[in-house]
Every structure is written in C-alpha cells, then in structure tokens.
Amino acid sequence: MQTAQQNIRIQWWVAILSITLLLIKLIAYYLTHSVSILTDALEGIVNVVAGFVGLYSLYVSAKPRDTDHPYGHGKIEFISASLEGAMIFLAGSAILFQGVMSLFNPEPLHQLDIGILLVSITGVINFIVGKVCVNNGKKNNSSALIASGKHLLSDAYSTLAIIIGLGLLYFTQWQWVDSIVAIGFSFFILYTGFSIVKSSLAGIMDEADEALLKKLVDVLEKNRKENWIDLHNVRIIKYGSTLHLDCHLTVPWYLNVHEAHKEIDILAALVRQEFGDSLELFVHSDGCLDFSCKVCEKKDCPVRKHTFEKRIEWDLHNLVSNEKHKVN
Fold first, then answer.
1. pTM of the predicted model as reported, rounded to 2 decimal places
2. Which of 21, 37, 256, 259 could hold 122 in an S-S bridge, CB 3.0 to 4.6 Å?
3. CA distances from 126 to 44, 121, 156, 292 (A)
4. Does residue 118 carry a pLDDT above 80?
5. How far is it, in rounded angstroms, from Cα 191 to Cα 154?
6. Which of 316, 325, 304, 308 is nearest to 249 (CA)?
7. Of all residues in the chain, what percent carry a pLDDT higher than 70?
8. How far apart are the first and last CA of the chain?
C-alpha cells in the first residue's frame, strides 16, 4: 500500500506539472508562431489528459482486492498505458499533418530567442520528471508510471530537437527548417505511442515477460536446495504493481505437510528477497516419483530406488513446461 501511495503522489506531480508546462508552451507559440513549438504544445495537451488518466488508474490499482476482483485492480494500469500510447500516436499524427501543411504555407516567425528559452525550460523539467517516473515505475512494477515517464521523456527529446531546429532557424533564417523539424519528430512520437500500446496489450494478454522469467530462473538455479528435486510449470502474471508467481515444486514424497510447507517458505523467502513484497506466490507441492531418483541429488535419501544419473540444469525452457523433469 505504501508503494501504491508513492506512485500516486508522483503521478499527482506529473498531472500538475503537465498543466503548467502546457501553458508555457502555448505562450511560446503565441509569441513565435512556430509550428515546431505548436507541435510541442499539441503533445502537451496529451500530457495533461494522460497525466490525469494515469492518476486515476493508479488510484484504482491501489484499491484492495475484493470478491469481484480477487487478483486486485492492477490490470487497469495496462488499460491506462494503452490509452496514453494511443493518445501519443494521435498527437504524432496531428503533428505530422501540421508540419506538412506549414511546409507549403509558412507563417512569419517572431521572438524566437524567447520561444527557445521557454521551451528549453519545459524540456529540462520533462526530462527530470520523466526519469523519476520511469525509475520509480520499474522499482514499484507500475506500468502506468513507466508509461507516463516514457511519455515525458519522449516529450523532452522532441523538445531538444525543436530547440536545435529553432536555433538553426534563428541563425540561418531558413523558414523550412521549422516544418522539417516538426515532421521529423512526428515520426519519433508515432513510434513512442506505438511501443507503449504494444507493451500494454502484451500485459493485458498476460504475455510472458521473458526477461523477468529469466531473472527468476537464474535466482532459483543458483540457490536450489537439496529437497527441491524438481521445479516446473513456472508462470509469472503481472497485475499492476503486483507479481503473481505460480509453480509446482517436487519434494521427497515422505515429507509431511509441515516439512513440505517449510520448503515452500524457503523458496518464497528467496524469491521475495530478490523481487520484494509486491510478489505473491502460489506454490503447489508434488511428491517425487520413481523416475525422479535419476535426477535427485539428495545424498541421504532413505527410500532411493534408482541411482543418481544427471543434474537437470533449470533454465527458461524447462521450468515453464508443465512436466516433471526426467532422464530420457
């Protein structure tokens, strides 16, 4: 809950700053009539909408689970992120259109020095806040916060390109530079929006996060215990800032319920040490079978029926399979 509240506080700052920065960009456009600055202002409008959408999604995501939502409300973060990505894509399309139009119908520009100063201020602020959002989003497993951060960073990079273009225009008086900069960065904004939508849809569809799974597999392989004869059917599902881990752990069949549960507790402590308390575990314990002896490294097993033949290295491929490991 403390993590969720931290995410909400950061998003509140994002929403408030987005309004302030939009006003600065609109003032810069009013003073200069630059289509590049207008494109930046258009994305600023998206920032305002996205900021409050992200804030609402984090508020809903922080709600405790209930009978209607037994896994919590975290999935709304993926919906929020996909909506934000779609808005970024639409903003990129509008910027592309405006850039092409201004290329053929240019307007005289004014007070470029003041305009460059104003948009520079917004770019620096967006970069700092975007980095804070992305870092905290990764730390707290928040898709909504990561999406907001990437959006702000893309805005900062587009602002940098606009500053460079306006600087070139200021010294050369080449009017077409203003339009070319807007057109060029519209493609970057379109790509950013598409990437966010693609990532969000993957989360909604519970697409396997291979990087996360590989990290988990490496931790388990390096720290596997003697009584952990086999591990399989490993799955990680993400619900907002909460990770759900499902797996089947094979232990010696003669362990009683309390002893088997102790092995699960050891595994849970190991995983939480790596991933934090935002991870929930659902571990199903299996008793070993006769063929398990050939891959079991337990040295003092009182009921061994076959000699040990081969250690099965746990990797991303064989842990996600829903089959107990055996020597072929």
1. 0.54
2. 21
3. 10, 9, 5, 56
4. yes
5. 10
6. 325
7. 85
8. 47
Rounded Cα distance between 32 and 219, Å, is 56
Predicted confidence (pLDDT) per residue in 263-296, tens digit: 999 988 888 887 776 677 788 888 998 898 998 9
Tokens for 43, please give them: 């994305």
Query: What is the distance between the alpha carbons of residues 279 and 113, in angstroms, rounded to a whole number?
Result: 51
CA–CA separation, 121 vs 166, rounded Å?
Answer: 15
CA 39 vs CA 33, 150, 178, 185, 244: distances in Å: 11, 18, 11, 9, 41
Query: Phi-psi category of 72—alpha, beta or left, where left has phi over 0 and alpha has psi -120 to 50?
Result: left
Question: Where is pLDDT greater, at 57 or 229?
Answer: 229
Residue 64 DSSP label: P
Question: Which of these, 202, 240, 236, 230, lies nearest to 216 by C-alpha position?
Answer: 236
20 Cβ contact partners less than 8 Å away, ≥ 6 residues apart: none
Return the pLDDT at 85. 78
Contact 44, 155 (CB under 8 A): yes
249: phi then psi, degrees, rounded to nearest 5: -110, 120
Please report the domains of the chain, with CATH numbers, ordered by start residue. 2-204 (1.20.1510.10), 210-320 (3.30.70.1350)
Written as six digits, the tokens of 161 are 């390109």
